[in-house]
């Protein structure tokens, strides 16, 4: 009996020991020493090699937006360099360069005077609708330019001056203004295209006007119809530049609806370069329309110009006006003695 009990104790003991071994074995298998958990993950060197080739590095995601699987996009570094370095140089050279040219030009040439003085007779040049469209588009342009340039230059120039809180607040409002004023601006550019296209088709007179430098140096007055070659250039810069910033701007405002990431980067690059060149060109336009030329601002300010202004700068247009209305029209009488 005692032998039987000893046998049974041995068998139960052996069973329990086997059971403990069976339970303990998987736990042992999880020890870090036995398996390398990062063996199948991407090595840093592999990432760097991939970047060296200039390709994007993709992961895998299960959500519908596959763009989120893009881990690293080397073209983004080129874009950032463009945005933080190249664009700032292009913008600074274009805008400051234009300001310097205008200041030097003003100091050397001075204001283009109305050589035959004011006659007192006024000629209607722009009607109320034309002036409304001009000023609406111009106002939007100035706000779009300032709010856009804040994105390009605000961080290095304005932030250190006004501090983080004020800069964040101003930038938020500037961004709202940039988005919402884009709509009246785009409508304005379209209206400008329609209302002034007839007077802005290039013709032979423009070649002569350009050959004579627009009469801007010296006392020459090359003839022109309603718009001279210089004004036609401004018109086409506004129409083509305005269309370009509008199309690229809306691609940026509604990201990824019509473009992929490369398209977004291209849209931003084109938008920013056209915008800074556009600002430089408009500085020249503003200069000539204000302090640069006597009698010019009145055309868009009150809608009329002096008859002598029309004769000195738009002689062929004045002839057209006279032919249309006749010399008896007190507003549009031809002048008897041209000064030239
Ligand atoms: C329909 C007209 C326009 C639309 C829809 C538009 C839209 C946009 C959008 C969505 C951005 C990106 C903003 C951001 O990154 O948060 C932007 C940036 C910018 N815009 Fe416009 N914009 C328009 C007209 C203009 C005009 C007329 C100018 C200047 C004359 C201008 C100058 C700029 C500049 C300088 C930037 C910043 C570029 C940069 O540094 O990345 N935009 N615009």
Proportion of residues in β-strands: under 5%
Approximate helicity band: 55-70%
SSE ordering:
HHEEHEHHHHHHHEHH
Question: pLDDT below 50 for ≥5 consecutive residues: which ranges?
Answer: 25-30, 328-340
Largest sheet: 2 strands, antiparallel
Rounded Rg:
36 Å
Counting H and I runs of at least 4 residues, what is the number of helices? Answer: 12
Total number of beta strands: 4
Strand order in space, largest sheet: 1-2
First and last CA, distance? 146 Å
The chain-level mean pLDDT equals 87
What binds here, in terms of ligands, is: protoporphyrin IX containing FE
What's the overall geometry?
Answer: elongated
Going by helix content, strand content and strand pairing, the class is mainly alpha
Description:
The chain is mainly α. 66% of the residues lie in helices and 3% in strands. The chain contains twelve helices and four strands; from the N terminus they run ααββαβαααααααβαα. The strands form two sheets. A two-stranded antiparallel ribbon has the order 1-2. The longest helix is centred in the N-terminal third of the chain and has 36 residues, at 74-109. It is elongated. The N and C termini lie far apart (146 Å). Mean pLDDT is 87; it is low at 25-30 and 328-340. Protoporphyrin IX containing FE binds at residues 83, 87, 141, 144-145, 148-149, 151-152, 175, 178, 182, 185-186, 245-246, 249-250, 252-253, 268, 271-272, 275, 278-279.
Task: Spell out the key features of this protein.
two-stranded antiparallel ribbon, two-stranded antiparallel sheet, disordered C terminus
